[in-house]
Amino acid sequence: MSESPKLSTKIIVAGGFGAGKTTFIGAISEVPPVRTEGAVTAASTGVDDLSATPDKTSTTVAMDFGRITLDNDLTLYLFGTPGQSRFMFMWDDLARGALGAVILADTRRLAESFHAIDYFERQYPLPFVLALNEFEGAERYPEETLRDALDLQPHIPIVDCDARDRESVRGVLVSLVQHAMVLSQSQGRHLVH
After folding, report:
1. What pLDDT, on a 0 to 100 scale, did the predictor assign at position 146?
2. Residue 2 has what pLDDT?
3. Per UniProt, which keywords does this protein have (predicted)?
């Protein structure tokens, strides 16, 4: 009896500064995640907005990396982008060959999501889902309000997420894979050759 071949693909985890991308990858990775963290120092004063994340002491300066196997036949390689716009020059290299992206959003700072949404809609089109990271004290908004505020098309999934919780993160990744499959079928493309 032969096993079906294992498939693997690349997923991008993007979003604004302090949205929880490193936590998201760390919560789900079945291998110790690779992190490229730098200390938040006085040099970032006036550059990085720490008002919503005053306890943040480090930030991703290149990428985060993790791996998760879904249903024993699909392995996802997760690449987290740095959140600051000054590091966006790295995004093309990270996104090359990816199946899709998770855009992690903090509803206290929705404007921080604009760069990632615009990037994956226009600059480097990839299927994506918007995952609302559930920070304590953050306001909850109706889906229509979020779609209007972020100018999101109706077919883009919006999912709730707790970036600290493995099952919540897994649900977001499954939503992205399903969304990418539906889009590829509607466009007559194959996701994996």
Report:
1. 94
2. 47
3. GTP-binding, Hydrolase, Nucleotide-binding
